[in-house]
Design a protein that fits this description.
With about 290 residues, this protein is an alpha/beta fold. It is about 45% helix and about 10% strand. The mean pLDDT is about 95.
Length: about 290
């Protein structure tokens, strides 16, 4: 461990690692380059509990990151798992527990065996909607293999990945999210004997009702899709900032982490990005109103 505690800890957000192109996807080659760059630059990949401890004031290496994956796609096992293992890195998977099925582990990248199809995000969404999540999501056997290897630890991303606020009135929303979280917690206990405080919100959405339902079930560390802030000692565990990683080589990632950790350029960059996002949304709303 370094002599200094980390000034801040960037949390990286991934979804897919696959040769299939598309949104929120990183190629295996670029992911390999990114992990190699982290190692070459002396970064430590924290566990979720180490990260939560850091927010409370516990020391972690000065160069620390938390690597997170959302949803639990099969490609995380097929491609990300062996690449993490190759570099001795550790990641967190926020799993949609209803998607995880039973069955034997499938072949992984580098095994020499034919690999299962790992389609684009758009195709994965269609396959889930068709009730065939087992074709594109990790199985519990694969989850256990990854945890045993130390490449991934598994935490909660709800049971069904439903946006209850978009589907129900307030009473239905509160019942829906509470039931969804309870089912996910039960699945993690049954399959992994795991009682976790770590929860990632589907699509990054949350409100007071969501937080109250989660806290009532024992969740206390909440991960967002908001990149415009710093994870620092004393930071709010109910609002973890995460950086969406692009499909670019390791040099890009090191540059992005450098900005994220810089006490001067980081806030300026965040304000600029937030301004651009708000302006883009305003344009979209104007176009929609004219349509």
């Amino acid at each position: 461990m370094g002599s200094k505690n980390a000034r801040s800890v960037p949390v990286l957000m991934y979804h897919h690692i696959t040769p299939s192109s598309g949104q929120i996807t990183t190629s295996p080659e670029n992911f390999d380059s990114q992990m190699a760059a982290l190692v070459a630059n002396g970064y430590t990949s924290l566990t979720a509990d180490q990260f939560a401890g850091y927010l409370k004031g516990e020391a972690v290496p000065e160069k620390s990151v938390l690597i997170t994956f959302d949803d639990g796609y099969l490609d995380n096992y097929v491609y990300a798992h062996p690449i993490l293992q190759k570099h001795g890195m550790h990641a967190v998977m926020f799993l949609v527990t209803h998607w995880a099925g039973q069955g034997e582990p499938r072949p992984v990248y580098g095994s020499g065996n034919p690999l299962p199809a790992c389609p684009s995000h758009h195709e994965c969404s269609a396959i889930v909607a068709a009730g065939k999540a087992n074709d594109i999501a990790v199985r519990w056997s694969e989850v256990r293999a990854m945890e045993a290897a130390g490449t991934f630890e598994i935490h909660c991303h709800t049971h069904t990945h439903t946006r209850w606020d978009l589907n129900c009135d307030r009473t239905g929303k509160r019942k829906g999210i509470a039931n969804d979280l309870q089912q996910s917690r039960a699945a993690l206990l049954q399959e992994l004997n795991k009682d976790t405080p770590h929860l990632c919100w589907p699509q990054g959405y949350f409100d007071d009702d969501y937080i109250q339902a989660a806290q009532a079930l024992g969740f206390s560390v909440f991960y967002t899709t908001d990149a415009y802030g710093f994870n620092v000692v004393g930071g709010d565990p109910k609002h973890i900032y995460r950086i969406a990683v692009r499909n670019k080589p390791g040099a890009w990632l090191m540059h992005r982490i450098g900005i994220a950790k810089n006490p001067y350029w980081g806030p300026l960059y965040n304000r600029w990005k937030k301004f651009r996002k708000q302006r883009r949304r305003a344009r979209e709303l104007r176009r929609a109103s004219k349509a």
